[in-house]
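User: tokens in, sequence out, please.
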């Protein structure tokens, strides 16, 4: 197991600097499988997407659409059509996202690219300037407050006994 200080250096969420090793180091991946994914059913997800790690270089994504059971058939058909047109492999958004993820993964295989951390510093220090009166910490838009909070929580999970 990586030492606590080492984990916090790899995922320095306070400064928005995340080492590529967090994403691609095989030993860290095995530790993550045991300490994070082995203890939880869903760690990374969205109401219509769920990511399943398949190795340090691969993941599988499941996606679905939810519509109220009592909704008219036409509403259900429109909902399915919108998914196919947007976030589906035959749509206009998902294929581009998948291609971007593939290119990023390919670029990260070269060891020279591991020397510099990923920078998640957008709006760093301005997290409290987002919309008021809503639940949660939304931060200003655009921002990377959610990404920094993800890595803050990741370090917390990795450090648990």
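Assistant: Sequence out:
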């Amino acid at each position: 197991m990586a030492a606590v200080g080492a984990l916090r250096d790899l995922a320095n969420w306070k400064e928005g600097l995340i080492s590529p090793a967090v994403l691609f180091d095989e030993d860290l991946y095995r530790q993550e499988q045991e300490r994070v994914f082995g203890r939880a059913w869903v760690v990374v997800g969205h109401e219509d997407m769920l990511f399943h790690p398949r190795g340090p270089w691969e993941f599988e994504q499941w996606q679905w659409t939810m519509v109220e059971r009592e909704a008219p058939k036409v509403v259900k058909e429109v909902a399915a059509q919108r998914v196919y047109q947007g976030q589906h492999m035959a749509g206009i958004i998902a294929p581009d996202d998948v291609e971007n993820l593939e290119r990023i993964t390919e670029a990260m295989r070269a060891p020279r690219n591991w020397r510099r951390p990923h920078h998640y510093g957008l709006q760093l220090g301005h997290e409290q300037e987002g919309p008021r009166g809503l639940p949660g910490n939304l931060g200003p838009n655009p921002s990377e407050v959610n990404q920094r909070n993800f890595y803050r929580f990741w370090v917390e999970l990795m450090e648990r006994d």
